[in-house]
Amino acid sequence: MDLGLKILKLRNSRKLSQPELSNKLGISQSALSEIESGKTKKIDFKLIEKICEELHVNFEYFTSDKVYSTVENKSKICKVIINQEDTCSKHVEILLNILNRLDRIERKLNDFGIKKQ
After folding, report:
1. Cα separations in angstroms, 68 against 48, 62, 63
2. What mean pLDDT is predicted for residues 24-44?
3. What value does the mean pLDDT take over residues 61-85?
4. Which helix (H) or strand (E) holds 98?
5. Is residue 27 domain-shared with residue 68, that is, in the same domain?
6. 66-102 b/e with 16+ CB inside 10 Å = b?
7. Best label site of 49, 86, 109, 115, fewest CB within 10 Å?
8. 109, 60 in Cβ contact below 8 A?
9. How many CB atoms are located within 10 Å of the residue 51 CB?
10. Does pLDDT of 22 surpass 90?
11. DSSP state of 27
12. What gap in Å lies between CA 113 and CA 16, rounded to an integer?
Protein backbone atom coordinates (compact mmCIF):
# COMPACT_ATOMS: atom_id res chain seq x y z
CA MET A 1 0.00 0.00 0.00
CA ASP A 2 1.46 3.37 -0.91
CA LEU A 3 1.96 6.30 1.44
CA GLY A 4 -0.97 8.36 0.15
CA LEU A 5 -3.44 5.52 0.52
CA LYS A 6 -2.22 4.82 4.05
CA ILE A 7 -2.72 8.48 4.96
CA LEU A 8 -6.21 8.44 3.44
CA LYS A 9 -7.21 5.29 5.34
CA LEU A 10 -5.81 6.62 8.61
CA ARG A 11 -7.53 9.97 8.15
CA ASN A 12 -10.84 8.24 7.50
CA SER A 13 -10.39 5.91 10.46
CA ARG A 14 -9.78 8.97 12.66
CA LYS A 15 -12.94 10.53 11.20
CA LEU A 16 -11.05 13.58 9.96
CA SER A 17 -12.02 15.44 6.81
CA GLN A 18 -9.39 16.61 4.33
CA PRO A 19 -9.92 20.25 5.38
CA GLU A 20 -9.48 19.32 9.06
CA LEU A 21 -6.27 17.36 8.56
CA SER A 22 -4.78 19.77 6.04
CA ASN A 23 -5.44 22.63 8.48
CA LYS A 24 -3.68 20.73 11.30
CA LEU A 25 -0.76 20.01 8.97
CA GLY A 26 -0.52 23.60 7.73
CA ILE A 27 -0.98 22.65 4.07
CA SER A 28 -3.75 23.28 1.57
CA GLN A 29 -6.57 20.81 1.10
CA SER A 30 -5.51 20.36 -2.52
CA ALA A 31 -1.95 19.49 -1.41
CA LEU A 32 -3.33 16.81 0.94
CA SER A 33 -5.60 15.53 -1.82
CA GLU A 34 -2.61 15.17 -4.15
CA ILE A 35 -0.66 13.29 -1.48
CA GLU A 36 -3.55 10.91 -0.77
CA SER A 37 -4.18 10.28 -4.46
CA GLY A 38 -0.51 9.49 -5.09
CA LYS A 39 0.04 12.45 -7.41
CA THR A 40 2.65 13.85 -5.03
CA LYS A 41 5.49 11.33 -4.85
CA LYS A 42 8.04 13.23 -2.75
CA ILE A 43 6.92 14.48 0.64
CA ASP A 44 9.08 16.56 2.96
CA PHE A 45 10.19 14.56 6.01
CA LYS A 46 8.96 17.27 8.38
CA LEU A 47 5.49 16.94 6.85
CA ILE A 48 5.59 13.17 7.31
CA GLU A 49 6.52 13.76 10.96
CA LYS A 50 3.50 16.08 11.34
CA ILE A 51 1.26 13.50 9.65
CA CYS A 52 2.49 10.82 12.06
CA GLU A 53 1.83 13.12 15.00
CA GLU A 54 -1.68 14.11 13.87
CA LEU A 55 -2.70 10.56 12.93
CA HIS A 56 -1.04 9.02 16.01
CA VAL A 57 1.24 6.54 14.24
CA ASN A 58 4.97 5.89 14.18
CA PHE A 59 7.02 6.61 11.08
CA GLU A 60 7.53 2.85 10.70
CA TYR A 61 3.84 2.49 9.91
CA PHE A 62 4.49 4.10 6.53
CA THR A 63 7.60 2.05 5.74
CA SER A 64 6.77 -1.41 7.07
CA ASP A 65 5.43 -2.83 3.77
CA LYS A 66 8.59 -1.96 1.89
CA VAL A 67 10.89 -3.31 4.58
CA TYR A 68 9.07 -6.62 4.87
CA SER A 69 8.87 -7.00 1.13
CA THR A 70 12.61 -6.44 0.87
CA VAL A 71 13.36 -8.85 3.71
CA GLU A 72 11.19 -11.59 2.21
CA ASN A 73 12.54 -11.19 -1.33
CA LYS A 74 16.20 -11.10 -0.31
CA SER A 75 15.73 -14.09 1.95
CA LYS A 76 14.19 -16.14 -0.87
CA ILE A 77 16.91 -15.14 -3.31
CA CYS A 78 19.67 -16.03 -0.85
CA LYS A 79 18.18 -19.45 -0.17
CA VAL A 80 17.98 -20.21 -3.89
CA ILE A 81 21.61 -19.17 -4.41
CA ILE A 82 22.79 -21.23 -1.42
CA ASN A 83 21.13 -24.32 -2.87
CA GLN A 84 22.97 -24.02 -6.20
CA GLU A 85 25.66 -26.67 -6.68
CA ASP A 86 28.24 -24.24 -8.02
CA THR A 87 28.01 -21.79 -5.11
CA CYS A 88 31.41 -21.55 -3.40
CA SER A 89 31.71 -21.72 0.38
CA LYS A 90 32.70 -18.05 0.66
CA HIS A 91 29.50 -16.99 -1.12
CA VAL A 92 27.46 -19.26 1.13
CA GLU A 93 29.10 -17.68 4.17
CA ILE A 94 28.29 -14.18 2.90
CA LEU A 95 24.69 -15.12 2.11
CA LEU A 96 24.19 -16.74 5.52
CA ASN A 97 25.48 -13.53 7.08
CA ILE A 98 22.92 -11.57 5.04
CA LEU A 99 20.14 -13.92 6.12
CA ASN A 100 21.13 -13.52 9.77
CA ARG A 101 21.05 -9.74 9.42
CA LEU A 102 17.63 -9.90 7.76
CA ASP A 103 16.37 -12.04 10.63
CA ARG A 104 17.63 -9.45 13.12
CA ILE A 105 15.87 -6.69 11.18
CA GLU A 106 12.63 -8.67 11.23
CA ARG A 107 12.94 -9.22 15.00
CA LYS A 108 13.52 -5.50 15.54
CA LEU A 109 10.47 -4.67 13.45
CA ASN A 110 8.44 -7.11 15.53
CA ASP A 111 9.76 -5.44 18.69
CA PHE A 112 8.37 -2.16 17.36
CA GLY A 113 5.02 -3.83 16.79
CA ILE A 114 5.29 -3.68 13.01
CA LYS A 115 3.55 -6.67 11.48
CA LYS A 116 3.33 -8.00 7.94
CA GLN A 117 0.22 -6.84 6.16
Report:
1. 20, 12, 9
2. 92
3. 61
4. helix 89-111
5. no
6. ebbeebeebbeebeeeeeeeeeeeeeeeebeeebeeb
7. 86
8. yes
9. 25
10. yes
11. S
12. 25
